[in-house]
Amino acid sequence: MEAIKAADFNPKFRDEVAELLKGYDFSNCLACGMCTAGCPYSDIHENQDPRKFLRKVLLGMKDAVYADPYIWYCTMCERCTIECPMNVNIAALVRSLRGTWDKDKIPGYLQTIANEHIESGNQMNVSQEDYEETLEWIEEELQEELGDPNYKIPLNKKGAKYFYGFNARDIKYYPNELQTTLKLFYVAGIDYTISTKRWDATNIALFTGQTDDFLAISMPLWQEVADLECEELIVTECGHAFRSMRWGYRTYWKGKQYPIRHILELLNELVKEGKIKLDPDAITEVVTYHDPCNTARKEGVYEAPRELLRSFVKNFVDMNPNGKMNYCCGAGGGGMAMPEFNEIRKAKGKRKVDQVVATGAEIVVVPCHNCMDQFNDLNKWYPEKAKSPNIHMCSLMERALIMPEKE
């Protein structure tokens, strides 16, 4: 073990980090190791010890901190913080340090995604023409599926109760997913709108820590909700989109105030109100539910999805641990966009695979696009996981949906 030299300490580094954090106190660390015990991956691969990383920061080992791959290995899931008796938020520390990186040196294609989002208005760099054509295609498909030739997607509707913000993957790769969601909205008869101006609720700068990029990406969407005078912002099944919208709104938005809710909170409410009816005999498989870290641990949404599932799934089996204590899927913190760390991501994912297999699940509900990509990779990497397909909640609900009789 290499000796730590006092000559390597930079007494000013702690002050620099404190200035970056602006309100998160990281100096209360007791060096007890509870963060390392709480991290699901501290024993999976090297350079994944939050206690050691934090000690380097506190000792002023600036060069060692910036050379430590932990900065980019950390999934920023905050499970270490849950266990910390002093509530030291290491994820916030990691994000702040990432934010000091030169943008052209950020790993993978994280910065490329941010740049394209700023330029095009969405993380998949979808052109305006392609976006509007995809919405037209979804509208035509729903007219036929619903047997309603007059069906229209409510675009740019001023004063709508709900503004729906979603993930650009639903336009570029999975338009059927957006179609399914809009079908549920149609059956429920809710008053909502989709903007043709700003619609992508994701923000990759949540992971890079670059505040200027974060604001350039999210601020226009918050403004669009205000400009359309909508009562509430509903965010799709995407953990980092939901976290970006809510945390960023609390931290930076100073305009008109409105609530921001996860779509599963809204859907659970609509089912309880009887506006969406689901057949309790339609889903016969054993189903489990994955808690995205950004949705459950960071934003506290984990009871509503389970209440929703239990309302129409007979064989629901929870993972252990679950809720705010659940394990990250292994691809958080921008992991999916850093292919040079794929082997690290694969190794982390095995812990989630073991969780799923232990439930005996035949279906895994994965309410997050980023987690979904990781889960689909896990199905390729691990034969035992391939036995349980992954699905979004809206898609599972569609299987059980009882369509209202036409008048």
Q: Would you summarize the structure shown here?
A:
This protein is mainly alpha-helical and 407 residues long. Helix content is 46%, strand content 5%.
Characterise the protein shown here.
InterPro entries: 4Fe4S_Fe-S-bd, 4Fe4S_Fe_S_CS, Cys_rich_dom, Helical_ferredxn. This is Fe-S oxidoreductase. One of its GO terms (molecular function) is oxidoreductase activity. The chain starts with 12 loop residues before the first helix and ends in a 7-residue tail after the last helix. α18 (369-381) links the parallel β6 and β7 (390-391). α8 runs parallel beside α13, α9 packs across α11 (175-188) and α11 (175-188) packs across α19. It is globular. The chain is mainly alpha-helical and 407 residues long. The model has no long low-confidence stretch (mean pLDDT 96). 46% of the residues lie in helices and 5% in strands. The protein has helices spanning 13-21, 34-38, 50-59, 62-67, 70-73, 79-83, 90-98, 110-120, 128-146, 169-172, 175-188, 205-208, 211-227, 239-252, 263-272, 303-310, 342-359, 369-381, 393-400; strands spanning 162-165, 192-193, 232-235, 260-262, 287-289, 363-365, 390-391. The protein is built from 19 helices and 7 strands. It folds into 3 domains: 6-100, Alpha-helical ferredoxin (Fumarate Reductase Iron-sulfur Protein, Chain B, domain 2); 109-269, no CATH class; 277-400, Rossmann fold (3-Layer(aba) Sandwich), CATH 3.40.50. The strands form 2 sheets. It has a 4-stranded parallel β-sheet with strand order 2-1-3-4.
